[in-house]
Specification:
0% strand, single chain, mainly alpha, 6 helices
Length: 123
C-alpha cells in the first residue's frame, strides 16, 4: 500500500486540502481521464460532508455545485463527474492512503497538532 513519502509530507501546506490530496499516488486509471484524481477526491469529501451517501448522490452533488467548484478552483469543466466515475475512483484509488492523508490534514488544522489525542472526531 503506497504511503506518503516523508519529504512530500513536509512540503504540504496545512491550510490546503488540495495539496494533501495531490500527495496521494494516482490509482491505475486508464487513458482519457477527464478529471484529475485530486478533484474527484475533493468532490467526494465535500459531497460526503454534505450528506452524500452513494455514488449517485456524489454525481448529484457535483452537478449541483459544478459552477461554484469551477469558480472557486479556477477550472472550466463543462460536465460533472458521473456516478460511474466515482465508482471507478473508489475501485482504483488507495483508500488507506486517502484515510491517512485526510487524517493528516485534519490534524494539521488543530493548533499545536494532535499530540496526546486518542481520537479525532470530525463533524
Amino acid at each position: 500500500m503506497p504511503q506518503i513519502p516523508d519529504d512530500a509530507a513536509n512540503r504540504l501546506d496545512s491550510s490546503d486540502l488540495i495539496s494533501f490530496l495531490n500527495a496521494i499516488p494516482v490509482g491505475g486509471f486508464r487513458r482519457g481521464v477527464r478529471y484529475p484524481q485530486w478533484f474527484l477526491l475533493l468532490v467526494a469529501v465535500l459531497g460526503v460532508l454534505s450528506g452524500s451517501r452513494s455514488s449517485r448522490d456524489l454525481e448529484a452533488f457535483a452537478k449541483r455545485h459544478r459552477e461554484a467548484l469551477n469558480q472557486a478552483l479556477g477550472l472550466d469543466y463543462k460536465r460533472w463527474p458521473s456516478d460511474a466515475t466515482f465508482l471507478y475512483l473508489f475501485n482504483k484509488a488507495y483508500p488507506q492512503t486517502f484515510g491517512d492523508v485526510f487524517q493528516a490534514w485534519m490534524i494539521s488544522q488543530i493548533p499545536g497538532g494532535a499530540k496526546g489525542l486518542e481520537q479525532l472526531v470530525c463533524d
